[in-house]
Amino acid sequence: MTAQEMYERDKVAIQTTGLSGSMLMENAGRAVSDDVETKIEKHQSVIVLIGGGNNGGDGYVIARTLLNRGYQVEAWQVVSDHKIQGDALLHKEIFIKSGYPLQQLEELGTLEESLEQADVVIDSMLGIGVKGQLRPPFKEVVALVNKRAAYTIAVDIPTGVPADESVSEFDGLFANHTTVIAAPKISVFLEHTSSYYGEWTVVDIGLPTKKIPNSRRKLWGKSDTLSTFPTRQAHSHKGSHGKGIVVGGSFQMPGSIAMTAKAALRSGIGLLTIATTSNTVPLIAPFLQEATFQQVTEEGGFLSSANVVDWSQYNGAAIGMGMGRNQGSTTLVEEIFDCVEGPLLIDADGLYLMKDGLTQYSKRKDPTILTPHPGEFAHLIDRSIPEVMQSPFCLTRDFALQYGVYVVLKGPSTIITSPRGEQCVEVSGNAGLAKGGSGDVLSGILLALLLQSNSVFDALANGCMIHGLTAERLTESRHSIYDLLATDLIEGLPNTFRTFSSST
């Protein structure tokens, strides 16, 4: 959610159901307290830092709830009394009338002494409405907390961290854990802000799901994959699971197309053809006995024309891996674009070669899928990589809507966008994937699932999860994030597929 979408959700909940702001605040504080209890022990010293606004109001409820449950808690109000208004003021009064002391920040040194003794700090100072640099006293308090060793838990969002995209200048509190209220905020998934959250969980506060607006964004989880995973009929045959073609490779880069092909085969595609140069075929054929080959015209060791290919016999294609970026390859991509029926996945060099032909995307009647990493996407839209990293949701959505394509923006938080602007985030995987060849493997997985699934969007999300979970499983057992290779991913696919296929 963006900050504005969260405000609208609260507003709709209050207006349509009779839930009051103070009830939602009580729900939020209690839900956060339940989550906090999984992180702390009764013997630990806890400080709750309370600001103004709704986030501060949650802090009064959290402090009261934990005190009621027998925890050692100091509640510190870090703003002046006139900043506490509305529902927050109500809960402040309930806290005081419950017989608990409230510390007020007058001198920073006094708070610093308490922080030095604290085992746990709960940050309930500022919420999702913050923009820009922090002002006193928050700037000084955040600096104090950041240099302490206490375990820090943020309520909904770490103080100072923007909820939304496109904000690069800010002061933020670094949390070990963040208890997110109702729904993850956009900044959970941005590279320059995600580290402030630490680990995070989401708690429900009772918002009416049937009434609140749909943001058309979701976090894709294992339950989503289980409910949408393609199934196989007992009497199916190789033609039932897709006949695909992968186009790419060159004498200088034969491994890319080989990994894509092998991953597609391991991911259940029924039949697969590799279209590549004649001098590339003998380099990869011994390792891919299950695939057939189509030699295409080459120029200087690179693909240049595929007029010899009968595209009508294939249900879908993936192109670009190891293709190179010479002029002949550009001609090839244009030919493929006009001829392929079914889903067309474009990756790697194909993304560069098609930049000047973006307007053609919307003319295809079948789905077109682009799978860039941030650098490739920045090149496509003529933006800098930092701009893409700061605003990946809105930039990919605008692009997908403009050109009628699916976009899979790869990264630690992979963002998948449909031509209608629907988005999901898939967060599996680890740093072991930060290595050449990982994207080629993903392209093969995606092509295979596209040809076995009823929904393009589901296939893309599931493929990203299969890819990420395989990396996680391998680094839990046989490999580390340092030595994991793309070819290891391919060999690890059977265990991941077995998990999902046995559960459907």
Automatic annotation (TrEMBL):
Residue intervals of the YjeF N-terminal domain: 6-213
Sequence similarity: Belongs to the NnrE/AIBP family.
CDD domains per the UniProt record, alphabetical: YXKO-related
UniProt binding sites for AMP: 410-414, 439
NAD found in the keyword field: yes
Binding site for K(+): 55, 123, 159
NCBIfam families: yjeF_cterm, yjeF_nterm
Residues annotated to bind (6S)-NADPHX: 54-58, 127-133, 156, 322, 373, 440
Alphabetized HAMAP family for the sequence: NADHX_dehydratase, NADHX_epimerase
PANTHER family xref list: ATP-DEPENDENT (S)-NAD(P)H-HYDRATE DEHYDRATASE, ATP-DEPENDENT (S)-NAD(P)H-HYDRATE DEHYDRATASE FAMILY MEMBER
Cofactors: Mg(2+); K(+)
Catalytic activity: (6S)-NADPHX + ADP = AMP + phosphate + NADPH + H(+); (6S)-NADHX + ADP = AMP + phosphate + NADH + H(+); (6R)-NADPHX = (6S)-NADPHX; (6R)-NADHX = (6S)-NADHX
Subunit architecture: Homotetramer.
Domain YjeF C-terminal: 221-500
InterPro entries for this protein: Carbohydrate_kinase_pred_CS (IPR017953), CARKD (IPR000631), Nnr (IPR030677), Ribokinase-like (IPR029056), YjeF_N_dom (IPR004443), YjeF_N_dom_sf (IPR036652)
UniProt keyword terms in alphabetical order: ATP-binding, Isomerase, Lyase, Metal-binding, Multifunctional enzyme, NAD, NADP, Nucleotide-binding, Potassium
EC number: 4.2.1.136, 5.1.99.6
Role this protein plays: Bifunctional enzyme that catalyzes the epimerization of the S- and R-forms of NAD(P)HX and the dehydration of the S-form of NAD(P)HX at the expense of ADP, which is converted to AMP. This allows the repair of both epimers of NAD(P)HX, a damaged form of NAD(P)H that is a result of enzymatic or heat-dependent hydration.
This protein's name: Bifunctional NAD(P)H-hydrate repair enzyme
The record's free-text note on cofactor binding: Binds 1 potassium ion per subunit.
